[in-house]
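User: Study the fold:
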Amino acid sequence: MGVQPKIAKRKGRAPGSRGKSRGGKKAPGSRLTPTEIEEIFRRFYKMSPHPKTELRYADPFTLLVAVVLSAQATDSSVNKATPELFKLADTPEKLIALGEAALTDKIKTIGLYRGKARNLIALSQKLIAEFDGKVPDNREALQTLPGVGRKTANVVLNVAFGQPTIAVDTHIFRVSNRTGLAPGKTPLDVELTLDRVVPERYKHNCHHWLILHGRYVCKARKPECWRCLINDICLYEPKTPPPAPS
């Protein structure tokens, strides 16, 4: 999602018990107060006012294809395959004409490529048959397409149509639970809590900021707390210290 953000250094709290909560009335479903949540997104906005997806696309259809391909795969792996694919097939009609075998060959460097190729052909057929070849701009219709779940639909609605939907991937799920922002046992739990607690003016860019933060700073194996923009608000303990000088 764009370039790696520049993260300011901040001092965290002294290490203690993990997840220790602070005082103050919490936002509904969150372990943080509304003031803390507002401050988190104020800092994200100041750092990167206009975050973007890292997937390369030209229109709603090519975005939809890229997002379907990105399931259980990295954006970088998708971006390596799609330029050549989109030169040949950047509409539902052209993708169907390309055929499943040729499509499979074009995306074989991406995980689960065989199933994705089948879904993309079927998805294109359904778009032509039921939506006049256009990508629909509502979640219910999008989720009727083969290979499109709630997360994919939310990405398309947010990026292609400017809707304030929140697509919860593994990065957002981790950051939301780790920080205390929106704890939940499932992606839907986290999404619904984020939808309740994130201030409206920040909601459209919310998932971009959280994905960037999880991808580059709040990493799965070892969060880089020493350079985290929000480590004084985050409830994760003990904070990861900076690496020892070499």
